[in-house]
Design a protein that fits this description.
- With 114 residues, the protein is α+β, with helices and mostly antiparallel strands.
- 19% of the residues lie in helices and 55% in strands.
- The radius of gyration is 19 Å and the shape is globular.
Length: 114
């Protein structure tokens, strides 16, 4: 009987570990993101550190919400600006748009995993 309990416990542990592995995103980690304004009156360049955990994008002290799909598709909102693009391995890029003092601006972004 004791062996049966141990076997069930081991099987449950392996199953739980497998679920945790599936919950992780291949893009989890810390990312350094640089944005470049191509049009409008927003800052010419800016950079920030973002964290990806289970495919969700966060940043301390910033109003950030977004996701990264399993294929690397990025969709994010940062302080009222919107960005989309693609991550591949340890790098990525895309486009963004927002406004400064009500004047539209837009540009490109690049990211690298730290």
């Amino acid at each position: 009987m004791r062996f049966g309990r141990i076997a069930v416990f081991c099987a449950a542990s392996v199953f739980a570990g497998t679920l945790a592995a599936f919950a992780q995103s291949p893009y989890d980690g810390n990312w350094h993101v640089t944005i470049v304004t191509k049009s409008g009156s927003c800052e010419p360049t800016a950079s920030s550190m973002l964290t990806v955990a289970d495919g969700k994008i966060t940043a301390p002290g910033a109003n950030v919400s977004g996701t990264i799909g399993s294929g690397g598709l990025v969709k994010v909102s940062i302080n009222g600006a919107y960005a989309n693009g693609q991550l591949n391995g340890n790098a990525g890029s895309g486009k963004w748009n927002g406004a400064s003092a009500g004047i539209p601006c837009s540009g490109r972004w690049e990211a690298s995993r730290q």
